[in-house]
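One thing: could you explain this record?
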Amino acid sequence: MNSTETSAVDDLGALAHRLSHPAATPCVCEAPRVLADRPDGTVVRSGTTVAKTHAPGTDREALAARIAVAADPRLTGILLPPLTAPASSAALGTAVGGTRPPAASRPVTFWPYGEPVDPGDPQAAPWAEAAVLLARLHRTPPPVPVPPMRGPAKAAGAVERMRTALPGHPSALPVLAAWDALPAWARDEAPAPGARGRFLCHGDLHLGQLVRHPAPDGPWLLIDVDDLGTGDPAWDLARPAAWYAAGLLPPEDWLTFLDAYRSAGGPAVPAEGDPWPALDVPARALTVQTAALTLAKCAAGQRDPDEPEALMLASCARIATSPPELATGPAS
């Protein structure tokens, strides 16, 4: 981390600390801690407050709309509510008494801290709880106008990242073939078709997007609304579906997730019968996205894929040579 990045993290931590501790309140907490530091966002915790800088080039109006959804009482018990509206990071250095803003033009939001899923305890993964939250989200009409959910845009970005990292490389050819076989809406080239595109969706569902609030044992809530918007609700089921099809998610966990979603009245799949016709396109798109990111990261790190990554690459290769609605069904 260079000096500018260190300053950004320090400033974020200082402002989170200020929000968490009014001036007259004695402080006995630990120093601010970095929870995530990626190109698309830095997240720092101080006490009960989390500060997040969003990706460069973030559409501020779209982000404000997404934050408004999270703050709306109709989403209480589904989305973690923000502490504040989006602020400009250009003023952050001044706000904490510093001399340099951490990442000029990048918006900053503030959130209550929630306890995340324990990655070391897969048996306790809250698949049923995640499914119920998704079903409730999908059944809630958008309380304010919001842009399309960014799931297809993220898939397209992953493919472009792979093209840049591995131009013309043979390993990218199956991924590109699977990508080219997707319909235009799944490649972010057209709106989702008909009524399927009108539901409120998270846009980037995985277990890292759940926390318990209040920490450490409050109810599970969905976090990270950067990709939230209207779209096909099947997209939010697509990552676990793709993992199941690739052999990464045990059948019992997939069935727990699917049954809980159906029992909660989720509209993404029929209430009974084969879910794969509804899930096929989004699951293929998430498989391609994962494979593209794997190849880009492996190229950047000059390493071979690990076992889970290799399974997703194999699943993508299978998609490239299989007809739709068979490509992402569970492997026999």
The beta strands are 33-38, 41-46, 49-54, 87-88, 107-112, 115-116, 199-201, 210-212, 220-222, 229-231. The longest helix spans residues 276-301. The mean pLDDT is 87. The radius of gyration is 20 Å.
